[in-house]
Fold this sequence. Notes:
The protein has helices at 2-30, 49-55, 76-80, 103-123, 163-168, 187-200, 255-269; strands at 88-91, 94-97, 127-131, 136-137, 145-146, 150-154, 177-181, 205-210, 215-220, 234-237, 241-243, 252-254. By secondary structure, it is an alpha+beta fold. The protein has a domain at 103-269: tt1808, chain A, CATH 3.90.1570. The strands form 4 sheets. The chain has a 6-stranded mixed β-sheet, with helices on both faces. The protein has a two-stranded antiparallel sheet with strand order 1-2. Strands 4-5 form a two-stranded antiparallel ribbon. The chain is globular, with a radius of gyration of 20 Å.
Amino acid sequence: MDRTRETEKGKAREKTREKAKEKANEEAKGSQQIGTGQRADGIAQEPSAAAAYIQNAGKECILPDPGIPDGGGHTEEEYYALPDDLRAELIDGVFYAMASPTEIHQTAALEIIRQIADCIEKLDAPCFAFIAPSDVPLGNEKKTVVQPDIYVHCMPHEEDGREERREAGPLHKTPDFIVEVLSPSNPENDLWRKRELYQRHGVREYWIIDPLAEKVYAFCFDHEEGSTSETMPDAYSFRDKVPIGISRGSCAVDFQKIRQKLQRLKMLEGY
């Protein structure tokens, strides 16, 4: 009896994996125009690695884990009840599986947060920088918990007009600054889904890092009441020193240093 049940479970898992592959392949076919300037709401206005990321999504898709609930309508409570070994985010009530970060991903993220933390300490700024894995709940609906690669909380100032953060404390609300490093397995999550999510929930600044194309896209969101304008990013290369907008230029990340580290890593790993 037990063997029969295990066989049935195995067949069910295999069927789920096949469906995931088919879906990913279809999505990849429909995304081949991204990165060629034909998508008005995309951030890539020229051919870049972002296009390759999405076109290869079917080959590198994250297969759904049977332990992660599918469908919508899920809550923070369900998220925190997941086993610790399952990597997932909850966005607007839907679970999204996460791949483990690659060496390139980790190298870029660690150097970025090192530079940010050094600047915070040098300026004695009232800010705190964090790196994944770390749960960040967003909104009052209790249906979104994300794990940004890097995020920064700063104490609010009077001119910020953020009374709710002064009352609840800065670490219980939306981060001021978020950095995501593109993942080959799920690039659209950072490129579009999370961009909209972070803007909607009041993130002040959001960076998307594309380590393969050596590009940085920096969004400074306008949260003024009544503002409906489409936010376009400032684009930089890995040869630039990119200023952090919320610091009013007091802090910046030198991507030339990150580029040099990634080049050494690629030589070491034989990329």
